[in-house]
């Protein structure tokens, strides 16, 4: 049996939570994992822990992700289902891995403050703000996955995050009972 877009039916779905840094991906993913018992996979942490990168980018102050190594590392976990993947990019993951792609979005007045508190400055700060203004990650998700599995969710406040976790929990329950 298959579900949406020709993806194989697993016992449990996989969700990708993506969005510009500072939109609440990790907070949302951790809350959802806690509420559902699903596995949370923070790709940025995995890249650091398992050296799934090709070095450090001094200008952008981040690791240069090795997409092939990341996908190889995650393949077996993703096939089993029950995963909430948290990462700011999405176009390199195989389409078959995800049953829902949630793109978190924040108003720049919220986002700028969050990123500044994290110590983002200069090009790193401006690149991320521009990314959100131009909805780069929503566009990337819409180009990489079937439109019926991509959802944009507002993520400005704690209340928004709570509402998003409730929405995603309901979606999971519906997916598993259909």
Question: In words, what does this structure look like?
Answer:
- The chain is 48% helix and 21% strand.
- With 178 residues, it is of the alpha/beta class.
- Helix 1 packs across helix 7.
- It is globular.
Structural descriptors:
178 residues, alpha/beta, Rossmann fold, five-stranded parallel beta sheet, 21% strand, globular, disordered N terminus, AMP kinase activity
Short description:
The protein is α/β, with parallel strands linked by helices and 178 residues long. The chain has helices at residues 25-36, 43-50, 67-80, 108-117, 122-133, 136-144, 158-177, and strands at residues 2-3, 7-8, 14-19, 39-42, 53-57, 62-65, 83-86, 100-105, 150-154.
- How would you state the average pLDDT, rounded? 94
What radius of gyration results from the CA coordinates? Answer: 16 Å
Distance between the termini: 11 Å
Give the tally of β-strands.
Answer: 9
Q: Name the CATH homologous superfamily.
A: P-loop containing nucleotide triphosphate hydrolases
Count the domains.
Answer: 1
Q: Trace the largest sheet across and list its strands.
A: 4-7-3-8-9
Strand content: 15-25%
Show unreliable segments: 1-7
- SSE order: EEEHEHEEHEEHHHEH
Main location: cytoplasm
GO molecular function, one term: ATP hydrolysis activity
Region (NMPbind): 42-65
Subunit structure: Interacts with small ribosomal subunit protein uS11. Not a structural component of 43S pre-ribosomes, but transiently interacts with them by binding to uS11.
């Amino acid at each position: 049996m298959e579900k949406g877009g020709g993806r194989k039916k697993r016992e449990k779905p996989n969700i990708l939570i993506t969005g510009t840094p500072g939109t609440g991906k990790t907070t949302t993913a951790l809350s959802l994992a806690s509420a559902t018992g699903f596995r949370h996979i923070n790709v940025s942490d995995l890249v650091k822990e398992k050296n799934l990168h090709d070095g450090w980018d001094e200008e952008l102050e981040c690791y240069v992700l090795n997409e092939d190594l990341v996908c190889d590392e995650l393949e077996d976990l993703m096939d089993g289902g029950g995963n909430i993947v948290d990462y700011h990019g999405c176009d390199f993951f195989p389409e078959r891995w995800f049953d829902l792609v949630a793109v978190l979005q924040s108003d720049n007045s919220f986002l700028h403050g969050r990123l500044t508190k994290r110590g983002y400055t200069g090009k790193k700060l401006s690149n991320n703000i521009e990314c959100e203004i131009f909805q780069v990650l929503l566009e990337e998700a819409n180009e990489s996955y079937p439109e019926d599995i991509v959802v944009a969710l507002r993520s400005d406040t704690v209340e928004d995050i709570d509402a998003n976790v409730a929405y995603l929990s309901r979606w999971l329950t519906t997916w598993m009972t259909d």
